[in-house]
Amino acid sequence: MKLLDRDGVRADTFSRATPGDRDLHDRPIVPLESLETQLSSREKRHVGVEVSNVASVEQLAPHFDDLALIAIVFPAYSDGRGFTLARRLRNAGFRGVLRAVGPLIADQFAHALACGFDEIEAPDAIAERQPYEQWRRAGASISLPYQQGYSRANSIFEQRRLARRGECNA
Amino acid sequence: MYKYDRFDAHFVRERVAQFRDQVERRLEGSLTEDEFKPLRLQNGLYLQLHAYMLRIAVPYGVLSAVQLRQLALIADRYDRGYGHFTTRQNLQFNWPKLVDVPEILDLLADVDMHCIQTSGNCIRNVTADQFAGVAGDEIEDPRPVAELIRQWSSHHPEFSFLPRKFKVAVSGAAHDRALLKAHDLAIRIVRNEAGEAGYEVLVGGGLGRTPMIGKVVRDFLPKGELLPYLEAVMRVYNAEGRRDNKYKARIKILVHEIGVEAFQARVEAELRAIEPISPVDETAELARIAEAFDTIDYARLAPRSERFEAARARDARFAAWAQTSIFTHRVDGYAAVTVSLKPVGGVPGDMTSEQMRLFADLAERFSLGEIRVTHAQNLVLPHVRLDDLHALWLELADAELATDNVGLITDIIACPGLDYCALATARSIPIAQAISMRFGDAVRQAEIGPLQIKISGCINACGHHHVGHIGILGLEKRGQESYQITLGGDATENAAIGELLGPGVTAQEVPDAIERIVDHYLARRLADEPFIDAVRRLGVDEFRAAFLGTQDEAA
Ligand code: HEM
Ligand code: SF4
Asked: Would you tell me which of A55, A85, B275, B474 could form a disulfide with A51, CB atoms 3.0–4.6 Å apart?
């Protein structure tokens, strides 16, 4: 697995902890089932949780303040549910790190970032076939999207609004 | 017509560069064929039986003469000199090469066109009433809303990997000419009791394997609130639409399984969760777009044209053509003219590059440079002066584009079927041609009156057979083509799914079977009673007996 974000490939400071795991994980990613026990026994704000793309906001919202990271699993690149879950978590106020886990492809980098993900944990096979340069390029291929409120980038609708108000000097 | 501003133009160019990069990465192996597939589909590139097929978006069916000329150029340079207009108001080229596609896209971008989302599991090209902005029964022109949705849905970060395709249609008229109820989502511009215009939203229609009629989920959505509402609908569908079985993945199945009320409740809940941090100023955007459609400078003309009346009285062929082809324009002295792409015995919806160029010239001379594509695979010249109709007709006739069968029995919708399509179980085009030959006589067609035949070459229903007055579905039975015939479908505001008449018939038997149904209608109709009304009055059973050739016993 390789971890990619806006700045490049980086080392993962989190590690997977399974239930009953006795190793000391500094920053564990735990399954949803064991989240409550993990949160009570550890220093909060260092714990991440991994959920499937059908998890609900209601299950996670009570823990938002304690969670450093939520990892959402994409079973296949063609399954877009993870994008909606990420968006719902951001709408509901989650401010920690959002990670997409699974066989996403470089061409979905922009989608993932816009929906609120910070990083992608991609299988080695894909990361090798598609070096980071491809992710960077694909991620930047549309410099100004239409949709508003999706990414940090400005939107076309917003640019037009500014132009209407005479505030645009672009 | 809408013209791209610098943002639209820049976006489409970037989309072309993005696709060029994707093709290169496919060719050098960074993308596997599996990974490339959704990317090429979202750009309208299918793999058919013999070659790639490229589907070009004609958003809401509005096309300019300049654009049509560019399509002719592409047909000549990169294809085999013709294109095919589809039931989704798009144009398909059947023979492009993968490596040429980026260049084709650049040529399209030169004239404000693209192939974005004409295929794939995403929000597809938006369709609309072909008489938008022209029809007298219109509350409001639906094109600005359609254009807003085109923009909003383009390269959507959240809704590009949906469970299945998602088709949207828009109309602003009292009569439904856009097949609203057969769409995943449809928007009808309506007025509330206070007289304000807003949107009625329908969800869950669709054809294919399990045809369903769309249901109202919001009877009045105030203007200015459309995009958040669409976002909520799409989010519920993306999260909950079935992904275990692609035949159950359309939104119609979700709505059917959980019920409209439950679906409505989820959408409303989602809507409350959407934080309108910086909502799009829809009203201002719609006004900006509407301005582009409002630039037409109509002449002040009398409602009645003596020249047209005289020509009609003098020339029976012209009168017959005028009878079927003319749609009343909301502006006095003008007409919208539907031009049939169904010559008797021809391929429905096909047009050669030569015809395209000629048609583009006619559009400039007679229709303020504007053209529309209809879901019935015909073209429209939307703004023709009544005074010019006869001159136009003469020129159309020279180009073999004056077939006087619009809305009649030989104005057949047919999907590409086994002649092109990899999913086909039977041929559709030759069936359409055979029926067209059988009923080709102009007098006989006129005598029969309005009758819609729609043919699909497999259960996917691209030819809308479910909603044909007579529907024909080509299947394969033990290595043989077998055609199921349905009756009583309706593609208007009275949308209905046709009923099966009996066991399938062979390709050769289709024209006879249709003839038995038509003869029964002619024998039983009341004066001036159209086919579909007679079917409703008499019931399908009576026609079933005629179809089976057993009406004597049944009577
Ligand atoms: C390569 C050729 C084509 C392929 C592979 C194809 C594939 C499909 C499939 C699989 C469906 C069923 C979708 C579902 O139920 O989920 C469908 C439906 C449809 N397609 Fe096509 N199609 C092709 C060409 C066309 C053409 C040429 C047209 C227009 C003439 C068209 C218009 C439609 C329409 C109107 C529907 C029905 C709408 C609905 O299902 O709600 N398609 N197509
Ligand atoms: S109905 Fe079937 S045969 Fe016809 S175009 Fe669609 S998928 Fe192909």
From this structure: A55
Q: Which residue among B21, B238, B277 sits closest to A81, beta carbon to beta carbon?
A: B238
Report CA(B461)–ligand 1 centroid distance (Å). Answer: 6
Residues B77-116 pLDDT 10s: 999 999 999 888 999 998 899 999 999 999 999 999 999 9
Longest distance between any two alpha carbons in chain B, whole Å:
70
> Residue ranges of chain A with pLDDT lower than 50?
168-170
Residue pair A99/A12 in contact by the 8 Å Cβ criterion: no
Whether B30 and A129 lie within 8 Å, measured CB to CB: yes
Q: What is the pLDDT of residues B199-237, one digit of tens each?
A: 999 999 999 999 999 999 999 999 999 999 999 999 999
Does the beta-carbon distance from B151 to A84 stay under 8 Å?
no
Residues of chain B with C-beta less than 8 angstroms from the C-beta of A158: 278
Q: Do A160 and B7 touch (CB under 8 A)?
A: yes
Looking at ligand 1, which atom is closest to the CA of residue B414? 30
> Residue B285's closest chain A neighbor by CA?
A157
Candidates A51, A73, A79, A83: best to mutate against B (most CBs of B within 10 A) is: A83
Lowest mean pLDDT among A152-166, B410-424, B455-469, B511-525: A152-166
What pLDDT digit, counting tens, does each position of B396-444 carry? 999 999 999 999 999 999 999 999 898 999 999 999 999 999 999 999 9
Rounded distance, CA B325 to CA B402, Å? 9
Q: Which amino acid is at B370?
A: E
* Nearest residue in chain A measured CA to CA from B234: A84
Residue to mutate, B462, B466, B467, B473, ligand 1, most ligand atoms under 8 Å from C-beta: B462
Q: Between chains, do A83 and B157 touch, taking CB under 8 Å as contact?
A: yes
Q: What ligand 1 atom has the least distance to the C-alpha of B205?
A: 41
- pLDDT tens digits, B37-58: 999 999 999 887 778 899 999 9
The answer to whether A47 and A13 are in contact (CB under 8 A) is no
The domain A2-143 is placed in CATH, from the list 3.40.50.10490, 3.20.20.70, 2.40.420.20, 3.50.50.60, at 3.20.20.70
Q: Closest approach of chain B CAs to the CA of A148, in angstroms? A: 7
B164 near B208, Cβ under 8 Å? no
User: Per DSSP, which regions of B75-116 are E strands?
Assistant: 82-85, 91-93
Rounded to whole angstroms, the Cα distance separating B128 from B492 reads 13
**Tens digit of each residue's pLDDT (9 = 90 or more) over B333-352:** 999 999 999 999 999 999 99
Residue ranges and CATH numbers for the domains of chain B are 6-110 (3.90.480.20), 127-290 (3.30.413.10), 306-398 (3.90.480.20), 413-554 (3.30.413.10)
Beta-sheet strand order (sheet of B185-191):
B127-128, B168-171, B185-191, B197-203, B215-222
Other CB atoms within 10 A of residue B302 CB: 10
The answer to whether B532 and B490 are in contact (CB under 8 A) is: yes
Q: What is the pLDDT of residue B67?
A: 97
| In contact, B173 and B135? CB cutoff 8 Å | yes
Ligand 1 pocket residue status of B250, Cβ below 6 Å: yes
> In angstroms, what is the span from residue B322 Cα to ligand 1's centroid?
32
Q: Hey, where are the domains in chain A?
A: 2-143
ipTM above 0.85, yes or no: yes
Measure CB to CB from residue B11 to each of A130, A134, A142 and give the nearest one: A142
Q: What is the pLDDT of residues B260-315, one digit of tens each?
A: 999 999 999 999 988 665 678 999 999 999 998 888 889 999 999 999 999 999 99
Alpha helices, DSSP H, located in B244-281: 251-258, 260-273
**A66 to chain B, closest Cα gap in Å:** 22
